Fold each of these.
Amino acid sequence: MAFSIILILVVLVFLYIKKRDNGSPKKENFNKRNKIKEEPITKIKNIFEKYNPVNLGESDLEKAIKNYNHSIYYIYKGKLESSTEYALLIGTSDEWVNLITLTRAQKPTYETYGFSVIQNRWSYGSKVLGAKEFRQFIKKNISEIKMLMTELTPIRIEKEKEKRLKIAEEEKEQKTYEEERKKEEAELKKAQKYFSKKINKNFKTVYFEYNQNKTKLESAIKEANNHYYDIDIINQTCSCPEYISENYKYDMNDVRRLCTHLNRIITQHKILKKSKDKLDQFILENLKYGILGVYKRKIGNNLDFAIILYNWSKNISVVTPKTNKDGFIMVEWKIEDNNWNPNRGGKKINEQIRVFIEKQFDI
Ligand SMILES: [Zn+2]
């Protein structure tokens, strides 16, 4: 019995040793194969150099490298079999190696292409001249490329962090901008409400006519025909939202009928006929879109003035005679500041008119 047990044990030990001896070479072979694929660090050839723009000369390739607008940390400059000079660049990406080489065009220029070392492919749409040669070269030097990419990991992480911070900042700015815009819109609505109370039966309009200059009219029509919106200069219509919601309500030749587009084309092509009325003429010369109404008044024999309200402005525009010469100037009452805007010649408003307006409109 004891002998049998010893015999069984001896057989088991023998089998175990045999198995171990059989296994070892296989494992070794497997490791060998793998090691060839991985290439140990000692086998990495140092083909890439640390990038320093100071080392660049003035060749077309070097100029293209200087114009490359991403960070470069390592660079390799080489030549294809066709003797085309090119550069491989390693930046902060752990996937893409960038290549600057000549295009396929008849007059080739240097262009940047990306090669993914993870997916082993060119970036979409790339038709790289010498693609196969580049691919083989990258494959041959993949260990060094991957090692350099790994080395750049801390910089990459830092850059990603910066990028996230920048995005957060931009989002914050966008939010502030939107808030400010909302605030401005609210202020404008408030001002418009204020205006609407003032726009009584005294607020009317100014009418315009086209002049007889056919060349100018034709060029205006031509511009209108080429416009994104459907603009008709003769019938004074436009397909823009502004016109459709507001301006259409007014008769032909009424300045209130002019949307941004009609106004711009009409004023730029100078197709308006001069008005005999000097005040009307000044208004037509300084025509702007979005007119809500025009209040015209004469004080005494010669003090003509006009108030113009616009749907886009928080200010009241006043056309008033110049204090010491002929002609008119435009001044503004700033509702926000409760004051005549000194930047727009507010100081020069005719005193009688100022008193009249402030009394009449309770401002
Ligand atoms: Zn329009």
Note: The CA atoms of residues 90 and 145 lie 8 Å apart.
Amino acid sequence: MEKFAGVELERASLPSEQVVGVCDLVLREVRDAYDAGFVHADMSQHNVAVAESGVTVFDWPQAVATDHENADEFLERDVTNVVSFFQQKYPQEMPDDVGYRALAAAIADGEFGSVAAFAAE
Ligand SMILES: Nc1ncnc2c1ncn2[C@@H]1O[C@H](COP(=O)(O)OP(=O)(O)O)[C@@H](O)[C@H]1O
Ligand SMILES: [Mg+2]
């Protein structure tokens, strides 16, 4: 693999107006991977790079196929890890109540667009 552009999500200091958008970009990568037949199964702020050009998800050796018996459990854990990282680091910008399970189901259905759609009323 080529060297990725940018810095790890953990080390990035995102401007307020980009927080939800970057979270959405990461989750769309998770959606696209699922659509291609894979669940990463170790998603975290340590395995995502952020650059001007976009986001890169790396560290895939433990990924499982979407027909793995635990794939949906891993997917929900991945989604929870990503969104809760953003919520903890950027509490002002992120919705504080997100339906992780519904969000994971939307990813599995290929219907995910934005985390904003999964915030409690
Ligand atoms: N393609 C890459 N380009 C630049 N740095 C990378 C790349 N892949 C991994 N790294 C760096 O190496 C670290 C560890 O890589 P990773 O694939 O996450 O392995 P693991 O977490 O299993 O040790 C990353 O956090 C990152 O800093
Ligand atoms: Mg890693």
Note: The longest strand covers residues 48-51.
Amino acid sequence: MKEVPLFRLLACLTPYRLINLGQVFISLGISRLSGRPVSWGFPLVLTIEPTNRCDLACPQCSTGAGLLRRPRGDLPLALYQHILQQTQRSLLYLLLYDQGEPLLHADYMEMIRLAKTAKVVVTCSSNGQLLADFNKACELASSGLDQIILSVDGLEESSYQIYRQGGRLERVVAAIANLRKAREQLRQKTPRICLQFLVMKHNEHELERVRDTARCWGADRVLIKSVQVRSPQDADWFLPLAEKYRRYTFGSGRLTVKSRKSKICDRLWTGCVVHQDGHVVGCCFDKDESALLGRLSEQSFITIWRGEALRHFRRRVAGSCKPDICNNCTHGLALYQ
Ligand code: SF4
């Protein structure tokens, strides 16, 4: 929730949501003090994956590199509505993206509109290629979206295309201009445009120019983020030389995430992730559903949220025998600057 302005979240509070927020954080506090997970309340934050298809081939992304083991597809609008109906009473913040490019979903604008009708703050994260079309940018701005994160990992076409394979920087620059123009025409300040820059070996020399260039293009904010890699070979290829921007330490041929995790992972108290086929997992690091918590085709969301699978997963994460996904987790590490 850190990347969203606090006033936007506060504006969505209702008495029920406020009480629920209190229940969630009190149970989290008790769990931390006692070391024994107890959870009260309902999700404050939800990540929903509209699609796990993508139009680019970014080499360190499971989807882009073709390594995602789940079937590809799109979340049916009816299932999305069903999830929203079951969660909107407590929900404050919706991340309407996970794996894949969310704007490829045919009903994406409608999904945002439905969440905004339910007074939920919505963020989209996109490679921005489709927003080079002004009509699409206008449609997105009209949907009520609060914030968009656009991935721009190079300030020149040559550096950008090393990672965003299949994409063109000029299209993202056009996307920013289109969104600004649409905002002006609609006389509104949203969506706030955040430019996300993954620092890698081939683009770290551009870091000092990022903020000025982003301002020139029309972005409202810059998010500098460290890159995730899968192997020591990839680390050698992609990790920047600047220690500050390396997510990992490297020793004895192994990569170790610099994360300083609390024993109790707050993500499992505040929300969870729904994949495009209605499968529910605990967090976005579980890309291949190694700890599947339930299927919305078989159970209601609330049954899954209150179910033994999630309780068991919380205990595993808090225990000494953590799931594999936690060993490569960066939650708790300051990724954005
Ligand atoms: S990978 Fe583990 S520690 Fe990290 S956010 Fe997920 S559950 Fe929490």
Note: Residues 261, 265, 267-268, 282-283, 285, 317, 325-326, 329, 331 surround iron/sulfur cluster (CB under 6 Å).
